[in-house]
Design goal:
By secondary structure, this protein is an alpha+beta fold. It folds into 2 domains: 184 residues, no CATH class; 216 residues, no CATH class. Helix content is 28%, strand content 14%. The chain contains 11 helices and 11 strands. Helix 1 packs across helix 9. It is globular.
Length: 504
């Protein structure tokens, strides 16, 4: 059975690591205890209390936004000119309840590529804050939500992925299908979910912690003890603006020997939870996770345990969905069947998107030579030149903080799966999750419930054929019969052409 690229890569690591090794693993059901204190265990799914009816996933919800046309156009122009995402003020009606003076901001990074002022704003990714300008304004406590970018017509893949994370006892976000409109336009089927902020952190973990978001264009390099060195690679999304625990964690990843990494990692990380996370992300065929091109992850620091917990984020490419859906490249071009990329258009002048020039003399930017034998230079560590967004002298990661972490090979994920005992943990979690979620039929129940909402309540927004196609793709990935990735239905909105929506 063909597998996704991430499944293949990690499966090989696991097989190599486990062969001939009898690793002792603790029970698979939850997070592991650390020497610094009690294990950090998130509150997930139905265990959460006082949840707004907005997050009732059994119902199709309505979100109707009203924005000033000139203000909307100016906001998009500002983003196109500077990539700055400005807040604007508007009104919104959620499930019949109207709110004034609401904050709206574009949400995403690559999901915003190619947008224009001519786009239907209901197809763009948004962050909507009810309490941005009015203190304590909320919908039954829900004040901050995200309208996600999509890669399939249904967004079933992301909704099911979030549900499975919670079912597995991992931190997740509540999400619902919505009919989303802007300025009275045609309603669009969009997935809305919680924004990970102070309220989310307090509900899932603890109000005393700190939540760091790994930026799409940063990496996990240790540079020095100055917090300012990490502000372009990590944002503090919730809790105190304190980079000290993060810096200590990155320094440990960077400088610890293999022996110390194996012996001391539990002092820094919820190890069992991370193993479970890796296993589930592979089970869901999500290459765009912590080790993918967008650095898609959060880190929660629990002060009681003194450890980090990796928090999953951005699942619009889960279950084999690809850019634009249906195995297509952004813009509608088909993926090459022979592994070769198509030639640049003859009228493009060798230009890359965004104006960058293709090298004509075999040289990489900054004078680095292109390899002629398919191998990266042995002294480069697989890194790009320092002026091309690669690793800087100050760190050994994918691209230096703020320098473009699009290489994959997250140092935590790489070191974890290269260690025999930790790799065995991932393998054991894979077996356990297979039994708990797939063999038990629980994953199929979750999928069926999500699909039923669309077929029964959203037939005017999405076809039954698209729901069936996307549901069958998810089932095929879970039961191991999926032959290729990118088989979901094509996304119907302009915001679905991107690989990731991991931005602010």
């Amino acid at each position: 059975m063909p597998c996704s690229p991430r499944l293949t890569r990690r499966s090989l690591l696991l097989a190599a690591a486990i062969t001939g090794t009898a690793a002792a693993c603790s029970s698979a059901g939850g997070t592991g205890a650390s020497e610094g204190g009690d294990a950090v265990t998130p509150t997930t799914g139905s265990d959460r209390t006082d949840v707004s009816s907005l997050w009732d996933a059994s119902t199709l919800h309505t979100i109707e936004a009203t924005l000033e046309e000139e203000e909307l156009a100016a906001m998009i122009e500002t983003y196109l000119d500077s990539e700055e995402k400005e807040w604007i003020t508007g009104q919104v009606t959620i499930d019949g309840t109207a709110f004034e003076e609401v904050g709206f901001k574009l949400k995403g990074n690559s999901s915003l590529q190619g947008i224009s002022t001519d786009d239907d704003p209901a197809t763009l990714p948004w962050r909507i804050r009810l309490d941005k300008y009015v203190d304590d304004q909320s919908f039954e406590g829900a004040a901050d939500l995200v309208v996600r970018s999509t890669t399939t017509a249904t967004s079933l893949n992301e909704a099911v992925a979030l549900d499975l994370l919670a079912e597995a006892g991992l931190a997740s976000q509540l999400s619902v299908a919505t009919a989303f409109t802007v300025n009275g336009g045609d309603p669009q089927l969009r997935l809305a979910l919680e924004h990970m902020d102070d309220a989310w952190m307090a509900s899932v973990f603890s109000a005393d912690g700190t939540l760091y978001k790994s930026d799409a264009d940063g990496d996990w390099s240790y540079v020095d003890e100055d917090p300012a060195s990490y502000e372009e690679a990590f944002d503090v999304e919730a809790g105190e603006e304190d980079y000290t625990p993060l810096i200590a964690f990155l320094e440990f990843l960077d400088s610890s020997s293999d022996e110390d990494f194996a012996a001391q990692l539990e002092q820094y990380l919820e190890v069992e939870a991370f193993a479970r996370y890796l296993a589930l992300e592979d089970m869901m065929s999500n290459f765009d996770d912590i080790d993918g091109p967008g650095n898609n992850s959060y880190l929660y620091y629990g002060p009681d345990a003194g450890t980090m917990t990796v928090v999953a984020w951005d699942h619009n490419l889960a279950f084999g969905a690809s850019n634009g859906g249906g195995g297509q490249m952004p813009g509608g071009g088909e993926l090459p069947a022979d592994g070769e990329m198509p030639a640049m258009p003859s009228d493009a002048g060798g230009a890359m998107p965004g104006g960058g020039q293709m090298p004509t003399d075999g040289e990489m930017p900054g004078g680095g030579q292109m390899p002629t034998d398919g191998e990266m230079p042995s002294d480069a560590g697989g890194a790009m030149p320092s002026d091309a967004g690669g690793a800087s002298d100050g760190g050994g990661g994918q691209g230096g903080p703020g320098g473009g972490g699009m290489q994959g090979n997250n140092p935590l994920a790489s070191r974890f799966t290269e260690n025999t005992e930790f790799a065995a943990m991932v393998e054991k979690q894979t077996t356990t999750l297979q039994e708990e979620l797939v063999d038990s039929g629980r994953a199929q129940e979750i999928l069926d419930a999500r699909a039923a909402v669309l077929t029964d309540q959203a037939s005017e927004l999405v076809s039954a054929e698209d729901v069936t196609t996307d549901a069958e793709q998810i089932t095929a990935v879970l039961d191991g019969t999926a032959e290729t990735t990118g088989q979901g239905s094509a996304a119907s909105d302009a915001g679905g052409d991107a690989a990731s929506d991991g931005g602010s």
